[in-house]
Amino acid sequence: MSNVAGKAYGMNVVTPMRPWKTWINTLIFKIARTQPQQLGGLLGLSIIHFARWVMIRRDQWPDLGQGRPTMRNDYMLFISNFNGTWDQYIDAFSDGIPNGLDLFWYSSTKYPGSIPISPFKAYIRANQVDNDYYYNATPGAAQRDIKAALRVWAVIDDLTDKHATLSPEAFSAEYRRALATVQNDLPSPGYAPVASNDTRNADNHRRTIVQGTWS
Q1: Which residues face 80 on adjacent strands?
Q2: Positions of the region Disordered (predicted)?
Q3: For residue 125, how many C-alpha atoms fall within 13 Å in the half-sphere facing its CB?
Q4: Strand duo 4-5 + 74-83: pairing
């Protein structure tokens, strides 16, 4: 599955918008930027690496030699990276900020609302564009794993500085204290369960290149 790399999933959703509604969504996004506390439910979802909504107007599509297309609609592009399965992410999104989702997709054609969840999932699935290739620099680590590793790194740096000035006895005590502080951050994160045979096959196909590049 080209949308999956280790524990991470990459999502792209493109939805059409009636041009006369685009200015309303533009205003909604500007207000949302000044009210970040309204997105507290989204910021609290630790499975999310990144999420962004972008409005693309009819005259903003690039001409790459094919000629400038004639478009009837503007479009909303939603991009997100997250840990876990597609269903888990949509469920968490709908539970976390249902009103925010309804505002952000307000102008999208035939948007059913984030609740109930089944029509919302059907809408996302119908407008999702799969990746041809999805690269993740840390496929075995989720967002929480990386934060844990950074905490361990900070403790190691602190111990390095103290090693030069403390006696062996004092450093031993400091080491035990530091170990107790980060003990919950030390387990190996491991890989997520295989989401599909396509994911496993893709990992096998690129293993030689990855090992040749990084070994």
Answers
A1: 11, 51
A2: 190-215
A3: 9
A4: unpaired
